[in-house]
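Schema walk-through. Below, the input block comes first and the output block second. Nothing else is stored per chain. Lengths vary across the set, and this one has 362 residues.
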Amino acid sequence: MGLRWLPTREETASLPILSMPGPSKTLLELPLSGLWRPGLPLSRPAPQRPEDHEGPLWALLPLPGAVGRPGCLHDHRLHHPALRGLLSEEVQKVMPPDSFYFSIVRHPVSLAESAFSYYRSVVPAFRRAGTLPQFLASPQRFYRPSERGNHYARNLLWFDFGLDPPAAPGLAPIQAALAMLEHTFHLVLLTEHMDESLVLLRDALCWGEEDILAFRHNFRSPESVRPLAPVEAARLQAWNNLDWHLYTHFNRSFWERAERFGRARLAQEVDALRQRRAERMQQCLQGGGPLEAGQIADERIRPFQFGQAPILGYVLRPSLDPEWQALCQRMVTPELQYKDLLDAKQFPPPPQGNGSQAGGVR
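--- output ---
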Protein backbone atom coordinates (compact mmCIF):
# COMPACT_ATOMS: atom_id res chain seq x y z
CA MET A 1 0.00 0.00 0.00
CA GLY A 2 3.12 2.05 -0.59
CA LEU A 3 0.56 -0.05 1.20
CA ARG A 4 -2.27 -1.84 -0.58
CA TRP A 5 -4.64 -3.75 1.65
CA LEU A 6 -5.41 -6.89 -0.33
CA PRO A 7 -7.95 -9.00 1.56
CA THR A 8 -8.88 -12.42 0.29
CA ARG A 9 -12.55 -12.84 1.10
CA GLU A 10 -15.11 -10.80 3.00
CA GLU A 11 -12.71 -8.88 5.20
CA THR A 12 -9.12 -10.17 5.16
CA ALA A 13 -5.68 -8.63 5.17
CA SER A 14 -2.44 -9.12 3.34
CA LEU A 15 0.45 -6.79 3.36
CA PRO A 16 3.59 -6.17 1.25
CA ILE A 17 7.32 -5.91 1.86
CA LEU A 18 8.87 -2.47 1.63
CA SER A 19 12.24 -1.04 2.57
CA MET A 20 13.95 2.19 3.56
CA PRO A 21 17.56 3.16 4.22
CA GLY A 22 18.76 2.96 7.77
CA PRO A 23 21.25 5.32 9.39
CA SER A 24 24.12 3.49 7.70
CA LYS A 25 22.59 4.23 4.26
CA THR A 26 21.96 0.52 3.74
CA LEU A 27 18.45 -0.66 2.94
CA LEU A 28 16.31 -1.74 5.86
CA GLU A 29 13.63 -4.04 4.46
CA LEU A 30 10.11 -3.76 5.81
CA PRO A 31 8.09 -6.93 5.22
CA LEU A 32 4.43 -6.96 6.12
CA SER A 33 2.92 -10.32 6.95
CA GLY A 34 -0.05 -11.27 4.79
CA LEU A 35 -2.61 -12.80 7.10
CA TRP A 36 -6.08 -14.13 6.31
CA ARG A 37 -8.37 -11.96 8.36
CA PRO A 38 -12.12 -12.53 7.95
CA GLY A 39 -14.28 -9.72 9.15
CA LEU A 40 -11.59 -7.12 8.72
CA PRO A 41 -12.88 -3.79 7.35
CA LEU A 42 -9.90 -2.80 5.25
CA SER A 43 -8.72 0.31 3.53
CA ARG A 44 -6.68 0.84 0.42
CA PRO A 45 -4.19 3.68 0.75
CA ALA A 46 -3.47 5.23 -2.61
CA PRO A 47 0.17 4.43 -3.47
CA GLN A 48 0.07 0.71 -4.21
CA ARG A 49 -1.22 0.58 -7.75
CA PRO A 50 -0.10 -1.78 -10.51
CA GLU A 51 1.53 0.96 -12.53
CA ASP A 52 3.49 2.16 -9.51
CA HIS A 53 5.79 -0.85 -9.44
CA GLU A 54 8.02 -2.94 -11.63
CA GLY A 55 9.27 -6.47 -11.11
CA PRO A 56 7.75 -9.74 -9.88
CA LEU A 57 4.75 -9.54 -7.59
CA TRP A 58 5.37 -12.65 -5.51
CA ALA A 59 9.00 -11.82 -4.80
CA LEU A 60 10.89 -8.69 -3.85
CA LEU A 61 9.64 -5.82 -5.95
CA PRO A 62 11.52 -2.54 -6.48
CA LEU A 63 9.54 0.64 -5.94
CA PRO A 64 10.70 3.74 -7.82
CA GLY A 65 11.92 6.82 -6.04
CA ALA A 66 11.63 8.11 -2.51
CA VAL A 67 8.40 8.23 -0.54
CA GLY A 68 7.77 10.42 2.50
CA ARG A 69 10.48 12.29 4.37
CA PRO A 70 13.89 12.97 2.78
CA GLY A 71 16.16 9.98 3.20
CA CYS A 72 13.33 7.44 3.27
CA LEU A 73 13.34 5.15 0.24
CA HIS A 74 10.86 2.28 -0.11
CA ASP A 75 12.56 -0.28 -2.27
CA HIS A 76 10.90 -3.68 -2.07
CA ARG A 77 7.71 -5.49 -1.23
CA LEU A 78 6.42 -9.03 -1.02
CA HIS A 79 2.75 -9.85 -1.47
CA HIS A 80 0.92 -12.10 0.98
CA PRO A 81 3.62 -13.99 2.87
CA ALA A 82 2.49 -16.08 5.82
CA LEU A 83 4.65 -15.98 8.94
CA ARG A 84 6.41 -19.23 8.09
CA GLY A 85 7.10 -17.80 4.64
CA LEU A 86 8.61 -14.64 6.11
CA LEU A 87 10.86 -16.66 8.37
CA SER A 88 11.74 -19.28 5.75
CA GLU A 89 15.30 -19.85 4.64
CA GLU A 90 14.50 -18.59 1.13
CA VAL A 91 13.18 -15.23 2.36
CA GLN A 92 15.89 -14.84 4.98
CA LYS A 93 18.55 -15.26 2.30
CA VAL A 94 17.21 -12.05 0.76
CA MET A 95 16.13 -10.10 3.82
CA PRO A 96 18.93 -8.72 6.01
CA PRO A 97 19.02 -9.35 9.77
CA ASP A 98 17.67 -5.87 10.58
CA SER A 99 14.45 -6.34 8.59
CA PHE A 100 11.36 -4.63 10.01
CA TYR A 101 8.19 -6.76 10.01
CA PHE A 102 4.67 -5.63 10.80
CA SER A 103 1.15 -7.02 10.61
CA ILE A 104 -2.41 -6.51 11.91
CA VAL A 105 -4.83 -8.09 14.39
CA ARG A 106 -8.55 -7.84 15.10
CA HIS A 107 -10.52 -8.29 18.33
CA PRO A 108 -11.19 -12.06 18.60
CA VAL A 109 -14.89 -11.66 19.40
CA SER A 110 -15.78 -9.59 16.35
CA LEU A 111 -13.39 -11.68 14.24
CA ALA A 112 -15.10 -14.92 15.30
CA GLU A 113 -18.59 -13.50 14.73
CA SER A 114 -17.60 -12.37 11.25
CA ALA A 115 -15.98 -15.73 10.48
CA PHE A 116 -19.22 -17.50 11.37
CA SER A 117 -21.22 -15.17 9.14
CA TYR A 118 -18.85 -15.40 6.23
CA TYR A 119 -17.59 -18.99 6.34
CA ARG A 120 -20.61 -20.84 7.71
CA SER A 121 -21.24 -22.71 4.45
CA VAL A 122 -17.66 -24.04 4.18
CA VAL A 123 -16.78 -24.77 7.82
CA PRO A 124 -18.05 -28.17 9.04
CA ALA A 125 -18.36 -27.03 12.67
CA PHE A 126 -20.47 -24.04 11.67
CA ARG A 127 -22.66 -26.02 9.27
CA ARG A 128 -23.51 -28.57 11.95
CA ALA A 129 -24.45 -25.88 14.44
CA GLY A 130 -26.62 -23.89 12.04
CA THR A 131 -26.67 -20.70 14.11
CA LEU A 132 -24.08 -18.91 16.19
CA PRO A 133 -26.05 -19.25 19.47
CA GLN A 134 -26.35 -23.00 18.89
CA PHE A 135 -22.63 -23.24 18.21
CA LEU A 136 -21.74 -21.25 21.32
CA ALA A 137 -24.04 -23.32 23.52
CA SER A 138 -21.68 -26.26 23.08
CA PRO A 139 -18.92 -25.71 20.50
CA GLN A 140 -17.17 -28.99 21.32
CA ARG A 141 -20.23 -30.86 19.99
CA PHE A 142 -19.61 -29.47 16.51
CA TYR A 143 -15.87 -28.80 16.34
CA ARG A 144 -13.40 -31.44 15.18
CA PRO A 145 -9.94 -29.89 14.77
CA SER A 146 -8.76 -32.36 12.12
CA GLU A 147 -11.56 -31.52 9.66
CA ARG A 148 -10.66 -29.42 6.66
CA GLY A 149 -11.96 -25.86 7.04
CA ASN A 150 -12.38 -25.96 10.82
CA HIS A 151 -9.36 -23.72 11.30
CA TYR A 152 -11.86 -20.88 10.69
CA ALA A 153 -13.87 -21.99 13.69
CA ARG A 154 -11.38 -21.46 16.50
CA ASN A 155 -8.35 -19.23 17.21
CA LEU A 156 -8.15 -17.91 13.68
CA LEU A 157 -5.62 -15.21 14.59
CA TRP A 158 -3.32 -17.83 16.06
CA PHE A 159 -3.67 -19.93 12.91
CA ASP A 160 -3.11 -16.92 10.65
CA PHE A 161 0.17 -16.14 12.34
CA GLY A 162 1.33 -19.66 11.50
CA LEU A 163 1.36 -20.80 15.11
CA ASP A 164 0.68 -24.37 16.18
CA PRO A 165 -1.58 -25.08 19.17
CA PRO A 166 0.48 -25.21 22.38
CA ALA A 167 1.96 -28.62 22.95
CA ALA A 168 1.62 -28.34 26.73
CA PRO A 169 -0.97 -26.80 29.06
CA GLY A 170 -0.46 -23.55 30.90
CA LEU A 171 0.69 -20.07 29.98
CA ALA A 172 4.36 -20.85 29.36
CA PRO A 173 4.01 -22.10 25.74
CA ILE A 174 1.59 -19.27 24.92
CA GLN A 175 3.97 -16.69 26.30
CA ALA A 176 6.84 -18.27 24.36
CA ALA A 177 4.89 -18.02 21.12
CA LEU A 178 3.98 -14.39 21.81
CA ALA A 179 7.60 -13.61 22.61
CA MET A 180 8.57 -15.03 19.21
CA LEU A 181 5.98 -12.84 17.50
CA GLU A 182 7.11 -9.82 19.51
CA HIS A 183 10.66 -10.50 18.39
CA THR A 184 9.53 -10.85 14.74
CA PHE A 185 7.08 -7.97 14.37
CA HIS A 186 8.16 -4.46 15.17
CA LEU A 187 4.65 -3.06 14.70
CA VAL A 188 1.27 -4.79 14.87
CA LEU A 189 -1.75 -2.70 13.90
CA LEU A 190 -5.29 -2.85 15.29
CA THR A 191 -8.30 -3.27 13.03
CA GLU A 192 -10.57 -1.46 15.48
CA HIS A 193 -8.28 1.56 15.30
CA MET A 194 -7.45 1.50 11.60
CA ASP A 195 -6.94 5.24 11.24
CA GLU A 196 -4.62 5.39 14.24
CA SER A 197 -2.83 2.36 12.80
CA LEU A 198 -2.35 4.03 9.42
CA VAL A 199 -0.92 7.13 11.05
CA LEU A 200 1.59 5.10 13.06
CA LEU A 201 2.40 3.07 9.96
CA ARG A 202 2.94 6.22 7.93
CA ASP A 203 5.35 7.46 10.55
CA ALA A 204 7.25 4.16 10.64
CA LEU A 205 7.52 3.97 6.83
CA CYS A 206 8.28 7.66 6.22
CA TRP A 207 5.19 8.04 4.02
CA GLY A 208 3.44 11.26 3.19
CA GLU A 209 -0.12 12.09 4.16
CA GLU A 210 -1.50 11.10 0.76
CA ASP A 211 0.06 7.66 1.07
CA ILE A 212 -2.42 6.54 3.73
CA LEU A 213 -5.52 8.06 2.17
CA ALA A 214 -7.86 5.09 1.78
CA PHE A 215 -11.39 3.88 1.30
CA ARG A 216 -12.78 1.09 3.44
CA HIS A 217 -13.16 -2.25 1.65
CA ASN A 218 -14.71 -5.67 2.25
CA PHE A 219 -17.20 -4.77 4.92
CA ARG A 220 -20.73 -5.94 5.52
CA SER A 221 -23.84 -3.87 5.43
CA PRO A 222 -24.33 -2.62 9.02
CA GLU A 223 -27.90 -3.94 8.99
CA SER A 224 -26.56 -7.47 8.50
CA VAL A 225 -24.21 -7.43 11.50
CA ARG A 226 -25.87 -9.26 14.38
CA PRO A 227 -25.21 -7.67 17.78
CA LEU A 228 -23.85 -10.13 20.33
CA ALA A 229 -25.30 -10.53 23.77
CA PRO A 230 -22.72 -10.17 26.57
CA VAL A 231 -22.89 -13.89 27.34
CA GLU A 232 -22.24 -14.72 23.66
CA ALA A 233 -19.26 -12.39 23.54
CA ALA A 234 -17.86 -13.99 26.70
CA ARG A 235 -18.25 -17.47 25.22
CA LEU A 236 -16.57 -16.43 21.96
CA GLN A 237 -13.69 -14.96 23.93
CA ALA A 238 -13.30 -18.12 25.99
CA TRP A 239 -13.55 -20.39 22.93
CA ASN A 240 -10.86 -18.36 21.17
CA ASN A 241 -8.60 -18.08 24.19
CA LEU A 242 -5.34 -18.23 22.22
CA ASP A 243 -6.52 -15.37 20.04
CA TRP A 244 -7.43 -13.42 23.17
CA HIS A 245 -3.92 -13.79 24.55
CA LEU A 246 -2.45 -12.74 21.20
CA TYR A 247 -4.76 -9.77 20.76
CA THR A 248 -4.35 -8.36 24.26
CA HIS A 249 -0.57 -8.64 23.91
CA PHE A 250 -0.45 -6.58 20.73
CA ASN A 251 -3.21 -4.22 21.84
CA ARG A 252 -0.97 -3.30 24.73
CA SER A 253 2.12 -2.82 22.55
CA PHE A 254 0.12 -0.73 20.05
CA TRP A 255 -0.98 1.80 22.66
CA GLU A 256 2.51 1.91 24.13
CA ARG A 257 3.70 2.95 20.69
CA ALA A 258 0.88 5.49 20.48
CA GLU A 259 2.03 7.02 23.77
CA ARG A 260 5.55 7.37 22.39
CA PHE A 261 4.15 8.96 19.23
CA GLY A 262 2.05 11.34 21.35
CA ARG A 263 -1.67 10.96 21.95
CA ALA A 264 -2.49 14.57 21.07
CA ARG A 265 -0.42 14.39 17.88
CA LEU A 266 -2.02 11.07 16.96
CA ALA A 267 -5.54 12.46 17.45
CA GLN A 268 -4.73 15.50 15.34
CA GLU A 269 -3.35 13.40 12.48
CA VAL A 270 -6.30 10.99 12.63
CA ASP A 271 -8.73 13.89 12.36
CA ALA A 272 -6.84 15.23 9.35
CA LEU A 273 -6.84 11.79 7.70
CA ARG A 274 -10.59 11.42 8.17
CA GLN A 275 -11.22 14.86 6.73
CA ARG A 276 -9.09 14.10 3.66
CA ARG A 277 -10.89 10.79 3.20
CA ALA A 278 -14.31 12.45 3.36
CA GLU A 279 -13.20 14.98 0.76
CA ARG A 280 -11.84 12.25 -1.51
CA MET A 281 -15.03 10.24 -1.24
CA GLN A 282 -17.04 13.25 -2.28
CA GLN A 283 -14.69 13.76 -5.21
CA CYS A 284 -14.77 10.12 -6.33
CA LEU A 285 -18.01 8.48 -5.33
CA GLN A 286 -21.55 8.62 -6.54
CA GLY A 287 -23.59 9.23 -3.43
CA GLY A 288 -20.43 9.93 -1.46
CA GLY A 289 -20.28 6.51 0.21
CA PRO A 290 -20.66 2.72 -0.02
CA LEU A 291 -23.49 0.93 -1.81
CA GLU A 292 -24.75 -2.65 -2.01
CA ALA A 293 -23.47 -4.78 -4.86
CA GLY A 294 -26.82 -4.74 -6.67
CA GLN A 295 -26.37 -1.01 -7.23
CA ILE A 296 -22.93 -1.47 -8.81
CA ALA A 297 -23.30 -2.21 -12.53
CA ASP A 298 -19.58 -2.19 -13.36
CA GLU A 299 -18.26 -5.68 -12.63
CA ARG A 300 -14.71 -4.33 -12.49
CA ILE A 301 -15.53 -2.63 -9.19
CA ARG A 302 -18.37 -4.82 -7.89
CA PRO A 303 -17.23 -6.74 -4.77
CA PHE A 304 -17.44 -10.52 -4.73
CA GLN A 305 -20.40 -11.75 -2.68
CA PHE A 306 -19.91 -14.74 -0.40
CA GLY A 307 -21.43 -15.75 2.90
CA GLN A 308 -24.62 -14.58 4.53
CA ALA A 309 -24.21 -10.81 4.44
CA PRO A 310 -23.95 -8.43 1.48
CA ILE A 311 -20.51 -6.92 0.96
CA LEU A 312 -20.58 -3.23 0.15
CA GLY A 313 -18.68 -1.46 -2.60
CA TYR A 314 -18.58 1.83 -4.45
CA VAL A 315 -19.81 3.51 -7.64
CA LEU A 316 -17.73 6.23 -9.27
CA ARG A 317 -19.16 9.61 -10.05
CA PRO A 318 -19.94 10.03 -13.75
CA SER A 319 -17.90 12.36 -15.93
CA LEU A 320 -14.70 12.30 -13.89
CA ASP A 321 -11.77 13.68 -15.84
CA PRO A 322 -9.22 11.01 -16.93
CA GLU A 323 -6.73 11.66 -14.13
CA TRP A 324 -9.37 11.49 -11.39
CA GLN A 325 -11.05 8.52 -13.09
CA ALA A 326 -7.83 6.52 -12.93
CA LEU A 327 -7.10 7.46 -9.31
CA CYS A 328 -10.63 6.87 -8.05
CA GLN A 329 -10.97 3.60 -9.96
CA ARG A 330 -7.90 2.20 -8.23
CA MET A 331 -9.18 3.28 -4.84
CA VAL A 332 -12.56 1.55 -5.30
CA THR A 333 -11.42 -1.66 -7.05
CA PRO A 334 -12.17 -4.71 -4.82
CA GLU A 335 -9.43 -7.11 -3.81
CA LEU A 336 -10.11 -9.90 -6.31
CA GLN A 337 -10.19 -7.61 -9.32
CA TYR A 338 -7.19 -5.73 -7.98
CA LYS A 339 -5.30 -8.99 -7.55
CA ASP A 340 -6.04 -9.77 -11.20
CA LEU A 341 -4.48 -6.46 -12.20
CA LEU A 342 -1.37 -7.30 -10.20
CA ASP A 343 -1.27 -10.82 -11.65
CA ALA A 344 -1.50 -9.41 -15.16
CA LYS A 345 1.41 -7.10 -14.41
CA GLN A 346 3.57 -9.90 -13.07
CA PHE A 347 2.52 -12.47 -15.68
CA PRO A 348 1.83 -10.55 -18.90
CA PRO A 349 0.46 -12.57 -21.82
CA PRO A 350 3.08 -13.86 -24.26
CA PRO A 351 3.72 -11.72 -27.34
CA GLN A 352 1.37 -12.36 -30.23
CA GLY A 353 2.65 -13.73 -33.54
CA ASN A 354 5.29 -16.25 -34.57
CA GLY A 355 8.77 -16.63 -33.18
CA SER A 356 10.37 -14.26 -35.67
CA GLN A 357 8.04 -11.49 -34.61
CA ALA A 358 8.50 -12.04 -30.89
CA GLY A 359 12.05 -10.74 -30.95
CA GLY A 360 11.33 -7.79 -33.22
CA VAL A 361 10.88 -4.14 -32.45
CA ARG A 362 7.78 -3.37 -30.40
